[in-house]
């Protein structure tokens, strides 16, 4: 009997071990793993840690108090900007700067000379060649004519300039640089020995009609920035409205907006006294050449104050309706990935979260120009230089950082 009892006790023990191994150990192991995970998290996240806050949207979040310029925050911002531009001037920057917010000028400075030969310093009346920033005016003029039913941007260019080749190109394709038409600045010298005497827009159109240079790609198949597009648009304005581009701009845009120091350059009349001379980086004057008499793609002179008037007109719908402005701000090319795009007269940075910066840069001879518009904040950066300096194009993100009171390298993504 004793031997049988021992046998029974051994069986019970063996059975207990089997049950534990099969059913309970997996649960115990799972619980132990969970305890380890929780312990690890508790080490990386302090017990008193604050709840995570979603990252703030980059744009539409600027909150500046400009009513009292004696406030420490405002004065600190000005000191940081002054310090930044002190460095820029030591490395060659010569130009004007304006930063505006909701119609108020927050920062305005003039660094250097308008005319080195006479010693004239840059000042609020010193107009600078805008270079390609002039395209924003040409595009707005075309869109105004479209808005007023003088033309239709989806009509063919030949509807308004029948002597032009390229039957498939529309006005809209010129506006968004999808025409495929070659750049006149590159091909005209092959047919014109005199590359120093300025041409007119009429001369350029006549050369297109005569020489019919081949298209670079099929119309509307891709984007390629091209000065010909905007020279042709200027000629369309003249044809449709029956007045010169220069007169149209003055009558319909510059005068109504109070842009008293803004004008379209006419090399045959010369540069009015007091305006800026264009210089190379070594202070050698840039002479006029064959393309300097062509308007639409460049050629408008302006000041930072007048450009701020231009900027603010879009918020007030002074010249263009809101519907037309939204059309201009719409990206038109999607063949390549990334945030960079071009609308109707405007470059743009289109971010995945829906934020957008509307801008245009310019470079012609020694003139470098920057016009950044943070439309969700009504915040604007305008930089106009008349002595060549490529660093101008890197200034806007730093200025933005200073206004946001963040580190200088925390500006905004320009590449995506």
Give an overview in words.
The structure is a single chain. The protein has helices at 2-44, 72-90, 135-147, 171-175, 184-187, 201-211, 227-241, 245-254, 304-316, 322-328, 395-403, and strands at residues 95-101, 104-111, 113-115, 120-121, 128-129, 263-264, 300-302, 340-342, 347-350, 356-364, 367-374, 379-385. With 416 residues, it is an alpha+beta fold. A hairpin with a 5-residue loop joins strand 9 and strand 10. Helix 3 packs across helix 7 and helix 6 crosses helix 7 (227-241). The longest helix is centred in the N-terminal third of the chain and has 43 residues, at 2-44. The N and C termini lie far apart (87 Å). Residues 1-55 have low confidence and may be disordered.
Task: Jot down its keywords.
416 residues, alpha+beta, 7-stranded antiparallel sheet, 3-stranded antiparallel sheet, 11 helices, 12 strands, 14% strand
Biggest sheet character: 7 strands, antiparallel
- Which stretches are poorly predicted, pLDDT < 50 over at least 5 residues? 1-55
Q: What percent of the residues sit in helical stretches (DSSP H or I)?
A: 25-40%
Mean pLDDT: 87
Give the ordered list of helices and strands. HHEEEEEHHHHHHEEHHEEEEEH
Strand residue content: 5-15%
If strands are numbered along the chain, what order do they take across the biggest sheet? 2-1-12-11-10-9-8
> What is the CA-CA span between the terminal residues?
87 Å
Structural class: alpha+beta
Q: Write down how many β-strands occur, each being a DSSP E stretch of 2 or more residues.
A: 12
Number of helices: 11
Shape: globular
Rg, please? 31 Å
């Amino acid at each position: 009997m004793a031997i049988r009892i021992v046998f029974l006790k051994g069986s019970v023990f063996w059975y207990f071990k089997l049950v534990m191994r099969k059913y309970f150990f997996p649960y115990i192991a799972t619980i132990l793993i969970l305890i380890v995970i929780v312990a690890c998290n508790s080490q990386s996240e302090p017990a008193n840690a604050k709840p995570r806050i979603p990252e703030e949207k980059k744009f539409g979040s600027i909150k500046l108090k400009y009513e009292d310029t004696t406030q420490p925050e405002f004065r600190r911002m000005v000191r940081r900007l002054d310090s930044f531009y002190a460095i820029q001037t030591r490395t060659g920057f010569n130009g004007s700067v304006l930063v505006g917010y909701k119609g108020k000028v927050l920062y305005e400075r003039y660094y250097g000379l308008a005319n080195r030969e006479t010693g004239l310093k840059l000042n609020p009346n010193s107009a600078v060649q805008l270079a390609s920033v002039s395209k924003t005016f040409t595009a707005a003029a075309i869109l105004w004519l479209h808005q007023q039913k003088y033309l239709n941007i989806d009509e063919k260019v030949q509807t308004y300039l029948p002597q032009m080749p390229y039957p498939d190109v529309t006005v809209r394709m010129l506006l968004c640089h999808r025409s495929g038409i070659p750049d006149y600045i590159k091909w005209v010298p092959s047919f014109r020995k005199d590359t120093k005497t300025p041409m007119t827009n009429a001369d350029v159109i006549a050369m297109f009609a005569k020489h019919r240079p081949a298209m670079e790609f099929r119309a509307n198949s891709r984007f390629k920035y091209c000065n010909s597009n905007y020279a042709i648009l200027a000629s369309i304005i003249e044809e449709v409205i029956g007045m010169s581009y220069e007169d149209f701009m003055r009558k319909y845009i510059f005068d109504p907006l109070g842009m008293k120091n803004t004008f379209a350059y006419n090399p045959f009349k010369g540069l009015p006294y007091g305006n800026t001379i264009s210089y190379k980086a070594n202070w050698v004057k840039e002479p006029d050449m064959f393309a300097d008499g062509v308007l639409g793609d460049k050629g408008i002179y302006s000041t930072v104050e007048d450009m701020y008037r231009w900027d603010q007109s879009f918020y007030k719908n002074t010249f263009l309706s809101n519907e037309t402005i939204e059309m201009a701000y719409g990206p038109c090319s999607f063949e390549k990935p990334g945030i960079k795009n071009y609308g109707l007269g405007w470059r743009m940075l289109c971010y995945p979260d829906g934020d957008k910066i509307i801008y245009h840069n310019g470079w012609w001879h020694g003139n470098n120009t920057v016009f950044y518009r943070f439309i969700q904040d009504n915040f604007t950066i305008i930089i106009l230089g008349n002595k060549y300096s490529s660093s101008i194009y890197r200034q806007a993100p730093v200025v933005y950082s200073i206004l946001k009171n963040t580190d200088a390298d925390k500006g905004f993504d320009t590449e995506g």
